[in-house]
Specification:
The protein is of the alpha+beta class and 293 residues long. It is 39% helix and 23% strand. It contains nine helices and ten strands. A hairpin with a 4-residue loop joins strand 8 and strand 9. The structure holds zinc ion. The site of zinc ion has 4 residues, from helix 3 and helix 5.
């Protein structure tokens, strides 16, 4: 049985349906907020949404490795968020916790538990379920902070580029990587977002620097339609001699062409824009690739 298997029992749903339900509920919250404040201009902040769900407040605390937690207290729910993270990350972490509140409000958790995953290993099953729930909360958070219609309007005004990626992240008060994923999801012009990090040497030696970037993730227009037309770069490494690596070394954006492979095995060179973000250990490169340019 696969995740797409749908018995006639109405209480069982697949993940696609669960995603639509939670995103739809998030959209209702966006509309309520817009109505309440009388305008639909970004940013959309977690602290604006919390009261709409009866969440009493957002508290900042040192949570160590944890980004945020939703506390069910007798006097009302409270979100506690990691004060050591930057404001954009805090905004998304809180919105993710609001996603958890929506998940339980919609009683989706027991229904996700009934979804059959493509594995016979019961432990792998539990992990797949937990991951599926986290993805549902991320989908809700994304719609809350970057409502599709508003985000699309801004994106088409700016045009898709690394420059507009930075503008949008600032305007919507979300991280560069969340913004890149959102662009790939909703852009009218097909666009693939990629994130590169330094490749870790197998036996790291003090003082030696990474000589290549490795692809951490990519998301393309195909991810929305369940793998149809999903492009991946043919080479998962960008060596220190490559143009892309310059984006990691310096702060200005770089343009180059890269070979991508479609699911069907078709290969295509595409223009790709890249820029480095963050400092030191946390530095990474975001690329946007354009199949139709
Ligand atoms: Zn979570």
């Amino acid at each position: 049985m696969s995740a797409n298997y749908l018995p006639s029992d109405a209480s069982t749903i697949n993940l696609e349906q669960a995603t639509s339900l939670i995103v739809e509920r998030a959209r209702q919250l966006v509309n309520r907020l817009v109505e309440q404040r009388g305008h639909g201009r970004p940013p959309f902040l977690s602290e604006e949404y919390a009261p709409l769900l009866g969440i009493k407040g957002i508290e900042k605390a040192d949570l160590g490795e944890v980004s945020a937690i939703l506390l069910k207290l007798p006097e009302g729910d409270v979100i506690r968020v990691n004060q050591n993270h930057n404001p954009a990350r805090q905004n998304f972490s809180c919105a993710h916790e609001i996603g958890h509140a929506l998940l339980s409000e919609l009683k989706l958790e027991p229904r996700v538990d009934q979804v059959e995953f493509r594995t016979f290993d019961s432990q792998a099953h539990a992990i797949a379920r937990a991951k599926a729930k986290e993805r549902l909360c991320d989908a809700a958070a994304t719609e809350l902070l970057m409502p599709e219609a508003v985000f699309k309007k801004h994106l088409s005004g700016f045009g898709v580029s690394i420059k507009s990626l930075e503008w949008l992240a600032n305007i919507f008060k979300v991280s560069i990587s969340s913004t890149a994923i959102r662009i790939a999801e909703v852009s009218t012009e097909p666009c693939i977002a990629l994130l590169w990090r330094p490749q870790r040497p197998r036996r790291p030696q003090p003082g030696t620097k990474s000589k290549a970037l490795r692809l951490a993730w990519h998301i393309g227009p195909g991810n929305r339609s369940q793998g149809k037309g999903n492009y991946a770069p043919k080479d998962m490494l960008a060596r220190h001699t490559s143009t892309l690596y310059k984006a990691y070394q310096y702060d200005s954006p770089v343009k180059c062409r890269k070979l991508f492979r479609l699911d069907a095995g078709i290969e295509q060179f595409m223009p790709i824009e890249s820029k480095g973000f963050g400092h030191g250990e946390a530095r990474y490169v975001i690329s946007l690739a354009f199949p139709n340019r």
